[in-house]
Amino acid sequence: TWRVAIIGAGIAGLAAAIRLRLAGHEVGVFEAAEAPGGKLSELRLGAWRFGLGPSLLTMPHYIDELFELAGENPTDHFRYRRLDVVCRYAWEDGTRLDAYADPLAFANETERVLGVPAERVLAFLARGEEKYRLTGRTFLEKPLHAPSTWLNAEVGRALTRLHRLELTRTLHEVHQRAIGEPHLVQLFDRFATYNGSNPWRAPGLLSMISHFEHGAGAFVPEGGMPAIATTLHALAERLGVHFAFNTPVAEIVTQNGGRRPRASGVRLESGEVQGFDRVVSNMDLFFTHERLLPRAPRPERTLGQEKSTSALIFYWGVDKSFPELDVHNIFFSDDYRREFEALEAGSIDDDPTVYVSISSRYDTGAAPPGGENWFVMINAPFSAGQDWDLLRARLREKVIAKLERMLGETRAAPVALREAIVEEAVFDPTTIEARTLSHLGALYGTSSNSRSAAFMRHPNHSRHVDGLYFCGGSVHPGGGLPLCLLSAKIMVGEMARREP
Ligand code: FAD
Question: Residue limits of the Amine oxidase domain (predicted)?
Answer without folding.
Answer: 11-490
